[in-house]
């Protein structure tokens, strides 16, 4: 299971804890609070090799750290404020503070345009606090923003300040400045979390060992002459692809070695096999292809053997891939197969259905999202969503939404098998 360090001030961490249980379902989360820029650097330096990735409480924390350390080497993301979060804040204030004059409410400038005019008419639109200097360093932005808040409030123009600086709680209270903090919603935070989890997964998958085994389908075709023809065809393919594969001839097979990143990119997330497509045009006999992916070469070889056995049972220019999580993906064919494309696609969906059912059974669960399936099957969230949508369209699964669909923002879709 992956591990993520969450670095933020206490006020932001309290908000992040709203989705803490959900994030803990998919990885180990450790919360790290900081109190000053020096403390931020210290915490990061002490923990930079401890986690697979980092989540920062907001853009200020991330950009401040980026200015203070040479490099952030692990995958990272920071929680940002979406337009829906601004609208929810306005709706909440309208309910909790009836009669509030929004013309006297000042809001930190959004990082992207927010259409406040869609719910306010002039002159009732909230006022935007412009950046004092867009080119200033983040190391000085805290003090500069506090100075602006003081200036706006002391001028008598503001009844309320809406700020993204959760670290200003104590100072704003001391100055007697009415304020509320603008935090990202649970939906926004979970979207950011899934994006980071995908980056961590992709980062760790890039350097895994990958072993492939190619062999004729039948013993009659496993001759020295045919193996030489197969070897020559492999060398041609490798030359056309800039030598990204190491080739090892054997007595009854040919083994290949590369990285998981190469295979994942070449097969477009395990959706087709360009190598078999090439070999189909070059060979007069069918071959089977098994690929194993693992952290060690020995385990990758064992998985390649298992994948090859599965491919040989199918027969006829197909490949199977045993991924790092132990799941087998296939059949992936090259070019036209004796089976129709529609039938082959249906077979792949059926295989995915079996894998999903096994995963849900082993983990005592009923629901699964595209993000979770992407991690289980080692694929992109987009491809995982396509599989779930296909199963829904076939009447195999029902779709649910974790959030109320009447609320603003995109709800997370969860799927459950009907039977």
Which key terms come to mind for this protein?
419 residues; alpha/beta; Rossmann fold; Alpha-Beta Plaits; 4 domains; six-stranded mixed beta sheet; four-stranded parallel beta sheet; 17 strands
Protein described:
The chain is α/β, with parallel strands linked by helices. The chain folds into four domains: 3-79 and 187-203, Rossmann fold; 83-183, Rossmann fold (3-Layer(aba) Sandwich); 206-310, Alpha-Beta Plaits (2-Layer Sandwich); 355-417, Orthogonal Bundle (Arc Repressor Mutant, subunit A), CATH 1.10.10.10. It is built from 15 helices and 17 strands. The strands form four sheets. A six-stranded mixed β-sheet has the order 10-11-9-12-13-14. A four-stranded parallel β-sheet has the order 2-1-3-4, sandwiched between helices. A four-stranded parallel β-sheet has the order 6-5-7-8, covered by helices on one side. Helix 7 links the parallel strand 7 (160-163) and strand 8. Helix 3 (37-47) crosses helix 4 (59-68), helix 9 packs across helix 11 and helix 14 (370-377) packs across helix 15 (381-393). The longest helix has 22 residues, at 341-362. It starts with a strand and ends with a strand.
Summarize the structure in short.
The chain is 44% helix and 20% strand.
Q: How many beta-strand segments? A: 17
Oligomer: single chain
Which class of the largest domain in CATH terms?
Alpha Beta
Number of domains: 4
The shape, in one word, is elongated
Biggest sheet overview: 6 strands, mixed
The share of residues in extended strands comes to 15-25%
Per CATH, the architecture of the largest domain is 2-Layer Sandwich
In helices, the fraction of residues equals 40-55%
Under CATH, the topology of the largest domain is which?
Alpha-Beta Plaits
The residue-averaged pLDDT reads: 86
Q: Any idea what the radius of gyration is? A: 27 Å
At the fourth level of CATH, the homologous superfamily of the largest domain is Reverse transcriptase/Diguanylate cyclase domain
* Coarse structural class: alpha/beta
Terminal CA distance reads 29 Å
Strands of the biggest beta sheet: in what spatial order? 10-11-9-12-13-14
Query: Helix count, per DSSP?
Result: 15
Low-confidence stretches: 335-345, 404-409
